[in-house]
Specification:
The protein contains 15 helices and five strands. It is mainly alpha-helical. Strands 2-3-1-4-5 form a five-stranded mixed sheet, with helices on both faces. The radius of gyration is 22 Å and the shape is flat.
Length: about 375
Amino acid sequence: MYYQQLSDEEILSGFREGDADIIRKYFYGYCQVGYNIFDQRYQLREKENLDFMSLAHQYALYLMEHDWKPLEDHSPNVSLKTWLINGFRYVVLDALKWYRKEYGSITFEDYLMSFDVTSDLRLQFNKMVEDVCDHAPLDRQERLIIDMLLLQGFKSKEIAAQMGMTPSAISQKYKKLKEQIIVPYFKKNFDIDLETPEIMDDMAILHREATMGGAKMSIPPMSGSMADMAAPMACEDMDFIREEVMEQKRTTPEFITELEPNEIFVFGSNLKGMHGGGAAYIAYRKFGAIMGQGVGLQGQSYGIPTMQGGIETIRPYVDEFIQFAKEHPTLTFLVTRIGCGIAGFTDDEISPLFEKAHYVENIVLPPGW
């Protein structure tokens, strides 16, 4: 049977009933879109055990074991397609973590490739590189290597030819500079998460899908149960699966793609206001966060610094935020899992800082906080 148009509810029902046509068209079809998107960034097809079918089967097995409920619980503001693809994203990231552990990976270069060379953020990135060259303890040769590689786009062999060195020597020098100076500098000042891409919303997925020229998928026929074909599940604790522990109180959704006029997106920032990754980048791209402002209300977002030191350095900014929310009762503040990304803290460390927020009706906290 050919299904022209089905509602999200009909698709989920088809998944549960084991309708092979619906599973093939919608589950594997949506996963294929996600795979094409992530392959563009991570070159998945070139990596061991990161082919499409292996990853899609892992995801299918997990969902079947939970009766497809993780898809049923998707936010009403997010389409089933986007929710499913974002879940598939975590399968990919878990697989990449294993791959990096086994084979190694240059994640900083992956990060560089994510920049649009025409964007304002790329200009901000260039300024940060220049700042590294101006203030880090580098000699003239090291500054020149960084400038030519990161700003001017030269290859190692081209730089080697100009500097009278071997390409291997250039690569070794850059690797040392990257590990000892560049990556630590960016982690400290640019609030970037070098391990995960930004959350993708409906518009981002539609745009990337369109730019792929409508690539066709080819899925082999299924025989027997999907469990027989699936690889052992490697992502049983995927972050996007969360229990609803506070049924009577609204909690911040995992993926926020749009806001009501009175809603404020609360994100973890750094004092310099370099909104380069994770929730900070979403705040900058979608909700009015201002480059260079690290604290407080900005557009439909509110920044709480988390990168400046230990847990006690965050508490004053959280207390300031709670007081601000009390003084603005007509606004609703959606707090994301601040400090639990590149800042390196855990939910158990951050959530106690928001104990007083439980008594403020217009503050919405993440599940379990």
